[in-house]
Amino acid sequence: MGYTVGQVSDFTGITVRTLHHYDTLGLLSPGDRSPAGYRLYGDAGLARLQQILFYRELGFPLDEIATILEDPQANALDHLRARHRLLTGQIAALQRLVEVAEHAMEVQQTGVDLTPEERFEVFGEVTFDLTYATEAHLKWQHRPGHQRAMARAATHSKEDWAVLMAEAADWRLRLRAAFDAGEPADGERAMDLAEEHRRHLCRWFTPCPTDMHGRIADDFAADPRAFALLVPPSAQRPGLAAYLRTAVHANAVRHPPPA
């Protein structure tokens, strides 16, 4: 039994024009004719078509497919390995493009309107993880505090960010010193640092009552990506995020919100 060009087109989804093109190239030609004179594809032709479609799906050009199918000495595995190397290189190139797009999206998510050079100059090791920024935005987007913080961040100039980050860097050094000195997380020194951080958020981003500050500190302790926004990995210590969380919650007890 054979199948006409139209029938093959119908059940494979390949256009009649493409099948005629394969025929013209000598890549795939109908091998039989019906009593009415229609050219027909037999089982061998359909099997060959399956091979052609397989190689086309992998991106092989038609001339290379012809070589693989026609040359009995051709090693299909060698061709597949070469195609694998090419596709792997293309994936790496596309991944680099994805990273560029992510950095562009990152600026929008964080509300930081600086050039890449300015961002490096101001933020240094403190980096914004796009996945965390996106997740945090989706999680908190309906909270007024988050909305105010994003809007306020978008208004900061380069000079504002430089002052803000200098304050944060000095605070980080003193937090780490308290931690390294073994100061208790619920002691005066640690709670004072927690309160200083809360006031820093109030001054630069949004009013931050102690319950909101507690939720932020919980995120710091639960998600390394969040804590990296505050303390870059090179400056962290094991347990430092949990230490800060304890200090923040202890400070909330010391400074309860007004009734």
UniProtKB/TrEMBL annotation:
Name used for this protein in its record: HTH-type transcriptional activator TipA
UniProt key word Manganese: no
Domain HTH merR-type: 1-71
Keywords associated with the record: Activator, DNA-binding, Transcription, Transcription regulation
Coiled-coil blocks: none
Pfam families: MerR_1, TipAS
Keyword DNA-binding listed: yes
